[in-house]
């Protein structure tokens, strides 16, 4: 590769980094998923439980080191946006919020728990990542519960 071509490639890369081209950084509007996803900690848990009095909250217990959690995360976040506010996805990092993990008796990751009116829905737990189709079916089943 000639010095000129190498320079152009490096310059293009630097420009892409500066302008945020290709990573969505230039977009000012938040994604629909961002409005329906919240990190849950002991500090904002009461607020999330208040939201559960108005709509379904899906508590997503996971960890950064958990491969199925990492695989499911972008899918369930996208679904939170696609469902248009029908539920709030509450993401709980079990390493950072051990108190919440204990409160919900979390033993396996990832674990999804449906919550309405500040209480866990009966038979609402989903353990593991079953794939998008089954995840959609599980979400639909939770939305149907009152």
From TrEMBL:
Keywords: Redox-active center, Signal. Residues 1-28 form the signal peptide. It comes from the Bacteria. PROSITE patterns: THIOREDOXIN_2. This is Thioredoxin domain-containing protein. It comes from Amycolatopsis oliviviridis. Residues 27-144 form the Thioredoxin domain. Gene3D superfamilies: Glutaredoxin. Belongs to the thioredoxin family. Pfam families: Thioredoxin. SUPFAM superfamilies: Thioredoxin-like (SSF52833).
